[in-house]
Write a structure and sequence with these properties.
Structural class of chain B: alpha+beta
CATH architecture of chain B: Orthogonal Bundle
CATH architecture of chain A: 2-Layer Sandwich
Distance between the termini of chain B: 50 Å
Largest sheet of chain A: 5 strands, mixed
Oligomer: heterodimer
Number of domains of chain B: 1
Order of helices and strands of chain B: EEEHHHHHEEHHHHHHEEEHHHH
Distance between the termini of chain A: 54 Å
CATH topology of chain A: Beta Polymerase, domain 2
Number of helices of chain B: 15
Largest sheet of chain B: 3 strands, antiparallel
Shape of chain A: elongated
Largest interface: A-B, 34 and 38 residues
Strand order of the largest sheet of chain B: 1-2-3
CATH superfamily of chain B: Cytochrome-c3 Hydrogenase, chain B
Radius of gyration of chain B: 21 Å
Strand content of chain A: 25-35%
Number of strands of chain A: 11
CATH class of chain A: Alpha Beta
Order of helices and strands of chain A: HEEHEEEEEEHEEE
CATH topology of chain B: Cytochrome-c3 Hydrogenase, chain B
Helix content of chain A: 10-25%
Shape of chain B: globular
Radius of gyration of chain A: 18 Å
CATH class of chain B: Mainly Alpha
Structural class of chain A: alpha+beta
Chain lengths: 176, 371
C-alpha cells in the first residue's frame, strides 16, 4: 500500500513535469493532474507497472469547473465563456490495495481527452456518459455515442452549468 | 459445404418482462446463436445528478432512494457516509449499528427479489412467491421503523431519522428464526432443482480477468472467484466488529463464474447477512440517534469519493463541494451501470433463451443504471 506522494514519485521517474503534477492542498483526497493528451500513456503505465498494478477503474466522472467568464443574456440566463471542463479518474489496485485520483482538465471550447478504454474496459460507458453530459470528446474511443440522453438530442450537454432547456423537443413543449 | 446464413437483428425490450425495467437489447443473431448484444439504456433517465446540484445536501437523500429502488437503504447509507467523510462528522455508535442492521436487511430483501424474479424469468414461478413472502416481513420491519416500505429517507447525514421501534428487536429475531428454514426450502425448490441447474450451469461464464477489467463488482465478481468485498477490503462503519464469511464462487455445478454461481452466491450472502444482523441486534449499544445530525450542512471546499458494498456491488459517490449549501457535483458510480457493460461478452455464442438467464443472473436495476 502506497501513499499518493510515493505513487507520484514513481510516476515522476517515468514522465516529466509537463505531463503530471501533484496537488494535495484541498481537504480529503490528494490529486495528480495529468495532461489530457497523455493520460492514456500514464494510465497504461499505472496498470502495467509491477509496483503499481492499478487493475481497476473505480469511477470516472466529468465535471464542469464553471471557472470561465459568466455572461448573462437579457432573460437572465447564464452562458460561460472560457474556463475548463475536467475529468476525475479514481483508480484502485485490487492486489496491492492502494488508490489514486487523477484529474485531467481541458478547455471548454475544445474539450478533448485521450480515452483510457485501452487500459480498462469499464471506462467505455463512463466516457460515453461524460461525453453525453458534458460534451467532452474522448479521442480514439471505440464507440462515442450518447448513452443516457436520446441519440437525437441536439440541445447541448445537460450537466454543463450553463445548460438551457430547449423550448420544444420533437414538437412537444418542454417546460410543460 | 457449410450453409450460408444471414444475420438477423432482434429487439428485446424496452417492454419485456425479463429486462427488469425498461431496457432495450439489440440482439444480432445467427439463427438462434448470439453474435452480439448492444444494450440501449436511458429510458429511465431522470438526470438525478442535475437535480442534486439544485438541492441542498440533505435534500438529495430522497433522490438517492429512487436510483436503486430495491436497495434504497443502502443508497442512503452510501450518501450519508460520503457526506460524513467530507464534513468529518463523528457519528454515535448506535447509529452505526442501526445502519448496519438496516443495510443487511436490505441486502436480504434485495437478493430475495433478485432470486425470486430470476426463477420466474426462467420458468419457476413458485420460488418467486416464496421470496416475496419473506421480503414482505423485512419491508414490514422497515415500515415500523420509518413509515415507508420502499423509499425510506431514513438514513440522514450524521444519524438516522427515528430510533428503532420498541418491537423491532423481537420482530427481527422472529424473522431470522423463520427465515432460516425458508432458505433451505428455497434451495430445495430452486437452487438444486435439476431443470434450474440445466438452464444456468455453464451458461454465461465470466472469467475473473474480464470481470476486473470491466469493473464488475459485488456478487458477480465474487462468483467469478475473487474474494473481494468492501465490507472487509475497504472497511467502513462497524462491519469489522462482526464475524462473517465472504462467499466465493467455486463452479460447484459447472464452471466458476457461470449463472448458477452468480445465483448461488446471493443465497449464501443472505446467510452471512443473517449472521451479521443476529450479532448486531444483540450487541447494539444505547444512545441518541439524532445528536450528530448537523443543523446546517455546509461542507468546506473539497471533494471526496467514498463507496459501500451495495447488494449489487460497489456503490460510489463522488461529491464536489464549492463551499456553498448545494453540491457542485454529485456523481454516482452505480454498480449495475458498470456491470451492464459486460453483458455482450457474456452472451456471445449462447442461445436467445440464455440471454434471459444471463441478464437475470447479473441482477441489474434500471433505475440505477439510468439514474
Amino acid at each position: 500500500m502506497k501513499t499518493a506522494e510515493e505513487l507520484f514519485n514513481l510516476l515522476k521517474e517515468k514522465f516529466d513535469d509537463s505531463i503530471i503534477e501533484l496537488k494535495s492542498d484541498k481537504p480529503v483526497d490528494p490529486i495528480i493532474t495529468v495532461n489530457p493528451l497523455e493520460v492514456d500513456k500514464v494510465c497504461l503505465f499505472l496498470r502495467e507497472e509491477k509496483d503499481l498494478q492499478f487493475d481497476s477503474l473505480m469511477n470516472l466522472s466529468g465535471v464542469d469547473d464553471a471557472n470561465g467568464e459568466k455572461i448573462k443574456d437579457e432573460k437572465g440566463l447564464e452562458t460561460i465563456k472560457g474556463g475548463t471542463l475536467s475529468v476525475y479518474y479514481h483508480l484502485e489496485s485490487t492486489s496491492l490495495k492502494h488508490k489514486l485520483t487523477l484529474k485531467v482538465s481541458t478547455s471548454r471550447e475544445k474539450p478533448e481527452i485521450v480515452t483510457v478504454t485501452e487500459s480498462w474496459k469499464s471506462a467505455d460507458w463512463h466516457e460515453r456518459e461524460a461525453y453525453d453530459m458534458y460534451g467532452i470528446i474522448f479521442i480514439n474511443h471505440p464507440d462515442l455515442r450518447r448513452i443516457l440522453m436520446p441519440y437525437d438530442w441536439e440541445f447541448g450537454y445537460p450537466l454543463r452549468k450553463d445548460y438551457k432547456n430547449p423550448e420544444f423537443y420533437q414538437g412537444m413543449k418542454v417546460p410543460y | 459445404m457449410a450453409l450460408k446464413t444471414e444475420e438477423m437483428v432482434l429487439n428485446m425490450g424496452p417492454q419485456h418482462p425479463s429486462t427488469h425495467g425498461v431496457l432495450r437489447l439489440e440482439l444480432q443473431l445467427d439463427g438462434e446463436i448470439i453474435i452480439n448484444v448492444i444494450p440501449h439504456i436511458g429510458y429511465l433517465h431522470r438526470c438525478f445528478e442535475k437535480h442534486a446540484e439544485a438541492m441542498t445536501y440533505p435534500q438529495v437523500i430522497p433522490y438517492t432512494d429512487r436510483m436503486d429502488y430495491l436497495a434504497s437503504m443502502y443508497n442512503e447509507f452510501g450518501y450519508a457516509l460520503t457526506m460524513e467523510r467530507l464534513m468529518k462528522i463523528e457519528i454515535p455508535e448506535r447509529v452505526e449499528y442501526i445502519r448496519v442492521i438496516m443495510g443487511e436487511l436490505q441486502r436480504i430483501a434485495s437478493h430475495l427479489v433478485a432470486l425470486g424474479t430470476y426463477g420466474a424469468d426462467i420458468g419457476a414461478f413458485t420460488p418467486f412467491l416464496f421470496c416475496f413472502r419473506d421480503r414482505e416481513r423485512i419491508l414490514h420491519l422497515f415500515e415500523i421503523t420509518c413509515g415507508a416500505r420502499l423509499l425510506y429517507n431514513y438514513i440522514w447525514i450524521g444519524g438516522v431519522s427515528h430510533d428503532l421501534h420498541p418491537d423491532f428487536k423481537r420482530l427481527t429475531r422472529d424473522f431470522i428464526k423463520d427465515f432460516k428454514p425458508n432458505l433451505k426450502e428455497l434451495n430445495d425448490l430452486l437452487s438444486y432443482n435439476r431443470i434450474f441447474i440445466e438452464r444456468t450451469a455453464n451458461v454465461g461464464v465470466l472469467p475473473l480477468e474480464t470481470a476486473i477489467n470491466y469493473g464488475v463488482t459485488g456478487p458477480n465478481l465474487r462468483a467469478s472467484g475473487m474474494k473481494w468485498d468492501l465490507r472487509k477490503d475497504d472497511p467502513y462503519s462497524v462491519y469489522h466488529k462482526f464475524d462473517y464469511e465472504i462467499p466465493v464462487g467455486s463452479g460447484e455445478k459447472g464452471k466458476t463464474g457461470d449463472c448458477w454461481d452468480r445465483y448461488f452466491i446471493r443465497v449464501r450472502e443472505m446467510e452471512e447477512s443473517l449472521k451479521i444482523i443476529e450479532q448486531a441486534i444483540e450487541t447494539i449499544p444505547d444512545g441518541d440517534v439524532t445528536s450528530a445530525i448537523p443543523k446546517r450542512v455546509k461542507p468546506l471546499e473539497g471533494h471526496v469519493y467514498a463507496r459501500v458494498e451495495n447488494p449489487r456491488g460497489e456503490l460510489g459517490y463522488f461529491i464536489i463541494s464549492d463551499g456553498s449549501l448545494n453540491p457542485a457535483r454529485v456523481k454516482v458510480r452505480a454498480p449495475s451501470f458498470v456491470t451492464m457493460q459486460v453483458l455482450p461478452e457474456l452472451c456471445k455464442g449462447f442461445m436467445v433463451a440464455d440471454v434471459v438467464a444471463i441478464l437475470g443472473s447479473i441482477d441489474i436495476v434500471l433505475g440505477e443504471i439510468d439514474r
